[in-house]
């Protein structure tokens, strides 16, 4: 029987991220700098998942997840930026109603906004626009999509989008969880549906990776602005 990608593989990749996060936390214990620790944790989680994907791929008869990048894929960054702007505009009335003024919808976003070190800000920028999109697309539109590719298109799109949104629920944990979830989860569901549709249409991960990168880009750019500028627009 051919060895193909499965639900179990996706679970193992997810657990690989947790193990990577745990190892990074152990290493970070000796760092003593909370901001540097944040970067180590983010990188550790991604590296853990990517390592498991690589190891599992070596056991498959057809390990290809569609990880192919074309030069023109960079144009999809603009689509990601446009998607971010459009969804932010559409959900703004709901966000204004549910989220107190001056607060971020996601606890992690608030943590990023408080970073002081320029080098740490650049490192988080790199994670947000490159490492995270690559890792998450390989997970959700790669391993998970391959595991359920025999199902109808709308089922594949829905499952991958729902799991993608659920993956980000821990970012919402904190005060006002229900309000944050009501704003963020619909956003992530739409993004997940778009990314799944593009992947199914192109049969490659390149476009989805760059859309994902563009979607993260606006928030990541804010990390690079001077503190006084951030304070004036917050």
Q: In the residues, how many domains can be counted?
A: 1
> For this entry, what is the oligomeric state of its chains?
single chain
Mean pLDDT: 89
- The share of residues in extended strands comes to under 5%
Q: How would the global form be characterised?
A: globular
Distance between the termini: 57 Å
Number of distinct helices = 9
Rg for CA atoms: 18 Å
- Helix and strand content put the structural class at mainly alpha
Number of strands: 0
What is the helical fraction, as a range of percent?
over 70%
The largest pleated sheet is described as: none
Q: Report the uncertain regions.
A: none
Helices and strands, in N-to-C order? HHHHHHHHH
How is this structure best described in words?
With about 230 residues, the protein is mainly α. The protein has one domain. The chain has 9 helices and no strands. Helix 7 runs antiparallel to helix 8.
Strands, helices and their partners?
Blueprint: H1 7-28, H2 34-57, H3 76-98, H4 107-113, H5 118-147, H6 153-167, H7 177-202, H8 206-222, H9 227-233
């Amino acid at each position: 029987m051919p060895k193909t990608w499965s639900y179990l593989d996706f679970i193992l990749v997810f657990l690989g991220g947790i193990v990577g996060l745990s190892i990074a936390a152990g290493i970070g214990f000796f760092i003593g700098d909370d901001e540097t620790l944040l970067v180590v944790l983010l990188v550790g989680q991604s590296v853990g998942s990517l390592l498991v994907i690589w190891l599992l791929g070596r056991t498959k008869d057809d390990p290809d997840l569609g990880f192919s990048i074309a030069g023109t894929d960079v144009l999809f960054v603009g689509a990601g930026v446009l998607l971010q702007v459009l969804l932010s505009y559409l959900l703004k009335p709901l966000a204004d109603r549910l989220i107190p003024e001056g607060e971020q919808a996601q606890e992690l976003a608030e943590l990023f906004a408080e970073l002081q070190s320029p080098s740490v800000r650049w490192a988080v920028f790199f994670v947000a626009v490159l490492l995270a999109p690559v890792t998450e697309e390989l997970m959700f539109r790669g391993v998970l999509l391959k595991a359920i590719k025999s199902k109808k298109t709308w089922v594949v799109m829905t499952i991958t989008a729902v799991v993608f949104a659920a993956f980000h629920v821990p970012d919402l944990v904190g005060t006002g969880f229900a309000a944050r979830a009501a704003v963020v989860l619909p956003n992530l569901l739409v993004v997940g549906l778009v990314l799944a549709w593009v992947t199914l249409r192109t049969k490659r991960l390149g476009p989805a990776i760059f859309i994902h990168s563009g979607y993260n880009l606006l928030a990541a750019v804010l990390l690079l602005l001077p503190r006084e500028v951030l304070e004036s627009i917050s």
